[in-house]
Amino acid sequence: MKQPLILVACCALAACASPGGHPQDPLEPMNRAVFSFNDKADQYVLKPVAEGYRYITPQPVRTAVGNVFDNLRDVYSLANHALQLEGKKTATDVLRVSINSTFGLFGLIDLATPMGLPSYKATLGDTFAHYGWQQSSYLVLPILGPSTIRDGTGVGLSFGYSSGSWVFQENRDAAAATILYGVASREKLLGLDETFSEAALDRYSYMRDGYLQYRNARLGFTPPASQQNPDDDNIDDLVPEDTPASAPAAAAPQADASAPVAAAPAP
Amino acid sequence: MKKLFTTLLLMLGLATPAMAAGDSPVDVISTTSQNALDLLKKENGKNTAQVRKQVEDMVVPLFDFTRMTALAVGKDWRAATPAQQTQLAEQFQTLLVRTYSSTMTRFKSAQIDVKPNAQINNNGREAVVKSEVTLPGNGDKKNVMVDYTLYKGAQGWKIFNVSVEGASLVTIYRNQFGEEIRKNGVDGLIKLLKDKNQPGKAA
After folding, report:
1. Residue range(s) defining the domain that contains residue A162
2. How far does the signal peptide extend, from start to end residue (chain B) (predicted)?
3. B171/A214 CB distance under 8 A
């Protein structure tokens, strides 16, 4: 599972910027190749296996499996919140893990969420971003899918150092758990892939742009203005505003709209 | 409390899809989403098509697809003739309605919590309404944040942008549209969308 790191090295060497492409995706040719590999892998292996898993397990079992993994992710999240010195979120994660691991029967039941302890699930990528590595190029990881160089590095380091060894004695068990985690995660997405194919004109850039918007919003990161077309943002320039007939706002002069149009993440 | 209020509104027959100009953007979103959920709950496997149609008829008029398409296309919108703009908006509307209509029954048992405080921009003509969607029964109980951006026009508040967890379902198309316009022009994009919208030809 050192692949992400190797990829990172490749990226550093390649440093290929394709003109006219997405500014946060200089590695587009390579990413597209990995994307189509993942597509095939999904079509022939991952999706059928996930469907089989859904077929043989009842929903309560799948929920319990998901909860166990979520509980482990909370441990990982706890470590990252601690690294970020996020006192409150670290405390929340400590409580979540303690409650779910004991009263929740080793994580089978998620009692913490209904108790009002929200889960943030921080990753090492979040920790890097917290300490200033906010902007990072898009990177499609083999099998794992959309990521960034920053987040992929986080994934690579975490896999390399722990790979579940703090839970499992045997490597074999850890590997089995990793596979089950993958299958369980894929099962949750069954049915969404049709929507995705229906919605997208170009599935690669649909996923990339969605992922980057989501990731940037979560980190509270706005790409620098030079990366966006400055006049794109002003919708009122594109579509003339019709004047509301009765609204009092009509009395106000046409304001030079400087407010951001899209739902800007809170600072 | 919100639910009670909505129920009262419903009982009084005030909650019609066609919104009066005086309605706040929050009311528009919360009333409509509640009504849509109520409709979806009637879905029983046999009447799926009918329920979908009813929800579409209720929800679609609340969107301004022209503005939405302009936002999706970005600066190339200016280069398009009014006729091309109309066609683009029509095809984009078809694409979006078709895509999201086929998934709506997944949200049958969802709970939608519309936040009472909208973020008002642009001298009160634009509002961002935030909501939190919970899907019970899903292994992942994480709530999903859905934000609606509305503007106030002659026909009251209309939605022109929807973001899920910070990712806009509209601007996500900008690169795909831009790429096609760069290669084959605005007409190329219209054609691409038309082909995509042909039943049985989904790529």
Report:
1. 3-237
2. 1-20
3. no
